[in-house]
Design goal:
Blueprint lengths: L7 E5 L4 H12 L3 E6 L14 H13 L4 E5 L5 H15 L4 E4 L11 H23 L8 E5 L18 H24 L5 E7 L10 H7 L8 H8 L12 H12 L10 E4 L13
Parallel strand pairs: 1-2, 1-4, 2-3, 4-5, 5-6, 6-7
EC number: 1.1.1.-
Keywords: NAD, Oxidoreductase
Family: Belongs to the short-chain dehydrogenases/reductases (SDR) family.
């Protein structure tokens, strides 16, 4: 028996990166998966999105673990698309126990800037809310909701050097911070129903988002065309521990814990998997 044996997990952003890792890890522990991803590029996002082939590979990896999977292309920005995808999955798999609202984008220096703001907020914040809210009617006692935040949401950025300089980048921090408050309120009011909700805050994570030209330029603005080799030393600044990034599997293990009965009384948490990144910003507080 696995730690989430015969449960069904609805995962957005499942075609690659953290989302794929979560799908496979939960499948390893006995869950069936409803895997959703956009699988097309967004004009204001400066790195390629996942492809239909990526989503097919996630499905193949889940099936390799002997679990069932329903893989659907859908845009988290559109609640109707998510609702249709989820209902298709439930019709085939029979139930819903776990929601992993993972889909997210980073719009650093995206143009036009106002559209970059909209695309990031619509994906990271509205998309998270859409995923959770289409799932709520199907969740009962013992269900677990898990959202992906970011250690960036916990950093003190109260002072803006140049307002309006990078709307897409600011939108990332704002959206992750806002979804954290959303989950806090949701967890409070779902607790009497026995439904848990938590946020995981990763630091730099070794995915296509991090390993991209816009991210390299964000960490090495002193160079015109920085490479991965140029950016890697700068990535260490985010963490107190000596690593430039964590791996998707590090997050997946926390997702598994929060989805399992081991965390049956864990709710409303802002859980950091950040290699000590938060410690560089704040003193101890009770």
């Amino acid at each position: 028996m696995g730690r989430v044996q015969d449960k069904v997990a609805f995962i957005t952003g499942a075609a690659r990166g953290q989302g794929r890792s979560h799908a496979v890890r939960l499948a390893e522990e006995g869950a069936d998966i409803i895997a959703v991803d956009l699988c097309k590029d967004i004009d204001t996002i400066g790195y390629p999105m996942a492809t239909p082939e990526d989503l097919e590979e996630t499905a193949r990896l889940v099936e390799k673990e002997g679990r069932r999977v329903v893989a659907v292309q859908a845009d988290v920005r559109e609640a109707s698309q998510l609702r249709n995808a989820l209902e298709r999955g439930i019709n085939e798999l029979g139930r819903l126990d776990i929601v992993v609202a993972q889909a997210g984008v980073a719009g650093m220096k995206g143009e036009p800037a106002t559209q970059a703001w909209c695309d990031v907020v619509d994906t990271n914040l509205i998309g998270t809310m859409n995923a959770i809210q289409v799932a709520l009617p199907h969740l009962g006692e013992g269900a677990s909701i898990i959202a992906t935040g970011s250690i960036a949401a916990l950093m003190d950025i109260s002072k803006t050097d140049v307002p309006g300089k990078d709307l897409g980048g600011v939108a990332y921090v704002f959206s992750k911070r806002a979804l954290s408050q959303y989950i806090h309120e949701l967890a409070t009011h779902l607790a009497p129903r026995g439904i848990r909700a938590n946020v995981i805050h990763p630091t730099n994570c070794n995915t296509d988002m991090l390993q991209s030209e816009p991210m390299y330029r964000s960490f090495r603005p002193d160079l015109e065309n920085p490479t991965r080799e140029d950016a890697t030393p700068a990535f260490y600044v985010q963490q107190a521990m000596k690593t430039p990034w964590i791996e998707p599997s590090d997050i997946s293990n926390t997702v598994l814990y929060l989805a399992s009965e081991e965390a049956r009384y864990v709710t409303g948490m802002q859980m950091r998997v950040d290699a000590g990144g938060y410690l560089k910003w704040y003193d101890f507080k009770i």
